[in-house]
Amino acid sequence: MPWTTPSIKTFTPVATANEATHRQRTYREAIAEGLHDLLAKDPSVFIMGEGVDDASGVFGTTLGLVDTFGKDRIVDTPIAENGITGIAMGAAIKGMRPIFIHMRPDFLLISLDQLLNHAAKWSYMSNGQVPVPLTIRCIIGRGWGSAAQHSQSIQALLTHLPGLKVVMPATAYDAKGLLVAAVRDNNPVVIMEHRWLYDNPGYVPAELYEVPIGKALVCKKGQHLTIVATSMMVHEAMRAAEELKKANIEAEVLDMRSIKPWDKECVVTSVKKTGRLIIADTGHRYGGVAAEVAAEIAERCWDSLKAPIRRITMPECPVPAAASLEELYYPNYKDIIRTAQGLLP
Amino acid sequence: MNIDDQIALQLFQKMLLIRLFEEKVIAYYPEQEMKTPVHLCIGQEAIAAGVCAHLQPTDTIFSTHRNHGHCLAKGLDIKKLLAEFYGKKTGCSGGRGGSMHPADPTCGILGTSAIVGGGIPLAVGAAWASSMQGKNEVSVAFFGDGASEEGTFHESLNFAALKNIPVIFVCENNSYATASPFASRQPLTVSIADKANGYGMPGVRIDGNDVLEVYRVAGEAMTRARQGQGPTLIEAETFRWMAHVGPVDDTKTGHRPAPELAAWRNKCPVQRLQQLLLNKGIINSNQEEKLRHEIDTDLEAAISYAKQAAAPTKEDLLNHVYAD
Ligand SMILES: Cc1ncc(C[n+]2csc(CCOP(=O)(O)OP(=O)(O)O)c2C)c(N)n1
Ligand SMILES: [Mg+2]
Fold first, then answer.
1. Crossing angle of helices B285-308/B78-85, nearest 10°?
2. Is the per-residue pLDDT at A10 higher than 80?
3. What was the pLDDT predicted at B112?
4. Could you report how far apart the first and last alpha carbons of chain B are, in Å?
5. Is residue A180 part of a domain?
6. d(CA B242, CA A137)
7. Nearest residue CA, atom 5 of ligand 1?
8. Closest C-alpha among A216, A210, A312 to residue A257
9. Is A150 in the active site?
10. Is pLDDT above 70 for A37?
């Protein structure tokens, strides 16, 4: 059915596109494999969420896990996000490593009390005595009239208060590596996946490897401007960079990967080299991730900047349903190209 | 025709409209022009029809992602609703809501949330406002069995009972939340209706596929509410025939067992009332055919209207984020 088969041209890092030398898996498969291996290796890991054991298996990422690990570790839950978050946290502070899954970040908003008043503060409030090794997965939706309550990108909202970690994998490699890192982390970590990346293939090693939380990735090197992007926007940025290259403009593209903590040094180093910065985020502009990056870079790279910092974000309105409005709503590589051209002499 | 027969006929007309509306959506959906996730209510029509038959336009309802039946039963124009599905400017929400978020205050639909449990407290607040304003209006919260697990359900029941608010909680228990069966979400030792007692209001469990029973029990709840006797919780047992979302048979995709669906299809609420009307001679089969034909003609006209209506444009994108 159309609403379940979104498609987008995605990039596969050229150096790792070879099946012979670099094992290929989709973003979805990478998550499924990561979950499976984490469960197999660590008896304290378990999964909970609405429909985690059903025939859709959270867009295919938990399919079959209940057959292998049973209903005690793959736990279908009532629809009670706030309570379940607290219950998962309770298990986490007593020695388990729960992974709580929301089909959409929008539903996670119900659990902000347990997440922000409790999970995010527990370590600090207890003077470090009670850590919260809780992993939360959610999948950003988009398109087919998903509309205002099924396509929100709430990363900025989650990062304002100290204590939560937030990551946004843009590739299959990171989808698995950040999941493993999140589950092994002793802090509450929210993983924001993107539904439109699920079919995107890439290099995924077979073993349980970690992508360190807090480290960005240089996807493409360049000297004329820096584009820092998150999630889906990494793919738009790469496409923009390819087009810009044809006009002899070399953009350096950074995948932020981790929203909090974020890799300030990586961005600072790049901007000191290029002197120009565009930030492309899947979230909103006001108080957003792009605003945070812009502020930090303005403070630290003032002398290197040759042009104003630019932000590419969702517009300041909720997500509309109509296809005609969706089309206008989401920025894409063309917006990045246009913005880049405006920054260069 | 006596009054009971007239009511039965009206209920049939509403249920048939809902059924044929949903079937029309199924027929046109494969064209991929209705770009909106549709949560069809086929099999559950009796609840919407039986409850809303008691409501005036000034009474309000708050529905869910599965709202088509409630909206039609409350009197939302089929053209406006279909134009909304097609993402058009003349849709009931200007095309920005789609199938999940219809709104039409002129018939008492003050917006629709697709967050599970999201509409329940809104119904309480709206009903409370009516009583603060000294109006004899009621509000209905429609929601699924899954929603009765959310905090908002429990918090709303408590408050409604505390303040004696004229609200009717109508839980459509179709045994599933997406593909998750009731038994993996709630203990089988208590029903949803049982919970009402604990919050201090009557809870009634009824056959949600028997529209006359729905009509009768909803009527009693309305009377209580309008006479200042406070809220009621109705748990209506029913079953949805289609997949959670989309015009799909989800027993074929392994989401629910086929025999369960087959058993419920035999308990079709529309068929049941139709048989009764025919048996009692309230309508004959010619009249029934004619009614179907009329509804179909209206629906076809509404589809054509929705398809050719203008889509919202750039000028529309940023307006109404804030009220004027
Ligand atoms: C807060 C929240 N959590 C999860 C979802 C995803 N979701 C949409 S409908 C649904 C099931 C709802 O079940 P029920 O309340 O029984 O209504 P039904 O679909 O059976 O009519 C779920 C889990 C959501 N929309 N909102
Ligand atoms: Mg249900």
1. 50
2. no
3. 98
4. 50
5. yes
6. 28
7. B116
8. A216
9. yes
10. yes
C-alpha distance from B72 to closest chain A C-alpha (Å): 20
A81, A252, A292, A326: which is the annotated catalytic residue? A81
Task: Name the catalytic one among A102, A150, A194, A224.
Answer: A150
Q: Which of A63, A144, A149, A316 to mutate to test the interface with B (most CBs of B within 10 A)?
A: A149
pLDDT tens digits, residue range B130-166? 999 999 999 999 999 999 999 999 999 999 999 999 9
The answer, yes or no, to whether residue A36 has pLDDT greater than 80, is: yes
Rounded to a whole number of angstroms, the distance from the CA of A192 to the nearest CA of chain B is: 19
Among A161, A181, A203, which residue terminates a domain?
Answer: A203
What chain A residue is nearest to B187 in terms of C-alpha separation? A78
Domain identity same for A187 and A242:
no
* Single residue among A203, A238, A266 that ends a domain in this structure: A203
Please give the C-alpha separations between residue B46 and each of A93, B109, B114, in angstroms, as whole numbers: 47, 19, 21
Is residue B193 exposed (0-12), middle (13-18) or buried (19+ Cβ within 10 Å)? buried
CATH of the domain at A181: 3.40.50.970
Would an 8 Å CB–CB cutoff place A54 in contact with chain B? yes
Ligand 1 mean position to A97 CA, how many Å? 26
- The CA distance from A24 to B187, in Å, is 44
Domains contained in chain A, number: 2
**Domain range for residue A88?**
17-203
pLDDT in tens, A270-307: 999 999 999 999 999 999 999 999 999 999 999 999 99
What is the pTM assigned to this prediction?
A: 0.96
pLDDT digits (tens, 9 = 90+) for A131-154: 999 999 999 999 999 999 999 999
Provide residues with CB under 6 Å of ligand 1.
A 50, 79, 81, 103, 107, 110; B 65-66, 114-116, 143-147, 174, 176-178, 244
Contact B180 A54 (CB under 8 A): yes
Residue A21 is predicted with a pLDDT of 85
Total CB pairs under 8 A between chain A and B:
131
A78 domain-assigned:
yes
Asked if the model's pLDDT at residue A242 lies above 80, the reply is: yes
**What one-character-per-residue DSSP string does B160-184 give?**
HHHTT--EEEEEEE-SEETTEEGGG
Provide, rounded to the nearest whole percent, the portion of chain A with pLDDT above 70.
95
d(CA B211, CA B6): 14
Question: What is the structure's pLDDT at A236?
Answer: 97
Pick the range with the lowest mean pLDDT from A17-21, B97-101, B115-119: A17-21
On average, the pLDDT of chain B sits at 98
Taking the C-alpha atoms of B275, B276, B280 and B285 in order, what is their torsion angle to the nearest 10 degrees?
-30
What's the CATH number where A227 sits?
3.40.50.920
Q: Which ipTM score applies to this complex?
A: 0.95
Q: Are B290 and B25 in contact (CB under 8 A)?
A: no
Active site residue A299: no
A235 and A257 both lie in a single domain: yes
Is A209 contained in some domain? no
Give which of B281, B239, B273, B283 is closest to B257, Cα–Cα: B239
For range B190-197, the mean pLDDT: 98
**Structural domains in chain B?**
3-305 (3.40.50.970)
| Ligand 1 atom 18 nearest Cα | B144
Question: Among A280, A279, A272, A278, which residue's Cα sits nearest to residue A302?
Answer: A272
CA angle A51–A56–A61, rounded 5-degree value: 85
The tokens for A202 are 């890439």
Non-local (6+) Cβ contacts of A82 within 8 A are A110, A111, A112, A113, A114, B151
